[in-house]
Amino acid sequence: MAKEYVPGETKEQRKIRKAKEKGITLKDKVKITSPVIAPPKPAPTPAPIDQITKKITTPYPTKPIAFVLGNGTSRTSIDPNVLVGKGTIYGCNALYRSFSPDYLIAVDTKMIREISNAGYQLTNSVWTNTNKFSREIHKINLFNPNLGWSSGPTALNFASQNGSETIYVLGFDYQGIGRKQELVNNMYAGTENYKNVNDRATYFGNWQRQTSMVIKRNPRTRYIRVVETENCFIPDSLLGLENLQHITIEKFKNILNIS
User: Fold this and answer.
1) 156 with 211: CB under 8 angstroms?
2) Can you state the angle between helices 26-33 and 11-21, rounded to 10 degrees?
3) pLDDT by residue (tens digit) across 66-83?
4) Is residue 36 included in any domain, yes or no?
């Protein structure tokens, strides 16, 4: 048994003696009790300046994008086919006659009858409001709850619910066309189930109010309305919305690199 204390022994001498009595040299003891210190980690390599600049100057997010196509005449110069692969496409009503969007939204009973008679819903995703007529259509999708809104705002609301972070809104003109904006503004005017080209413009108060409601309900979603000119008509209810901006068709084409 090691002695606890020897008269006249210093603290350092006692430390060495106890180590020897246990069969451990002081050098060995230091090896056992000394902590292992890991070498310092190398500093991270900074990102190249051009990569940092690219992140800052990218005009719009590359995360999930959607396009909601209304049928106002302002989108006449944009072929929907050039948008394929750039985001999810939501279309309205007679768009199906010449182009198949990812989702077709139609709430007017006459248009739903036309679409179902063509059998379009059998091979494509068609959505409409719930009513006695639509419940009997084979393979049609019904909104629940039924908002009772117009097709354009309903499509915009649908795109917002589906998680798109940036939504481009095309053909939402609201105002009529002609010298006094008195004529119907629709790409399909004069065709089946639409007003004639010389008919008076449709009242757009409900459309603008419903559009505004969607945008206000989704403050984290970025809405970009594509218009013909910088001095385009902006309804009162769409003024001052922080997550809504308006860009010209020319700028839209430049952003997406389309012609």
Assistant:
1) yes
2) 90
3) 999 999 999 999 999 999
4) no
SS3 212: helix
Give the domain range for residue 115.
64-256
Q: Provide the pLDDT confidence category of residue 6 given band limits of 50, 70 and 90.
A: low
Residues in a beta bridge with 226? 170, 247
Asked whether residue 232 is assigned to any structural domain, the reply reads: yes
Q: How many other CB atoms are found less than 10 A from the CB of residue 54?
A: 11
- The number of domains in the chain is 1
pLDDT tens profile 184-209: 999 999 999 999 999 999 888 899 99
Q: Is residue 25, in this structure, part of any structural domain at all?
A: no
Per-residue tokens: 191: 């065709």
* Sheet containing strand 141-142, strands side by side: 141-142, 126-128, 103-105, 88-92, 65-69, 166-170, 222-227, 244-248
185: in domain: yes
Choose among 16, 12, 14, 13: nearest CA to 24. 16
Q: How far apart are CA 121 and CA 233, in angstroms?
A: 35
CB atoms within 10 A of CB 167: 27
Is the pTM value of this prediction over 0.70? yes
Which range, 17-26, 49-58, 85-94, 143-152, has the best average confidence (pLDDT)? 85-94
Three-class SS of residue 213? helix
**Euclidean distance between CA atoms 99 and 246, whole angstroms:** 25
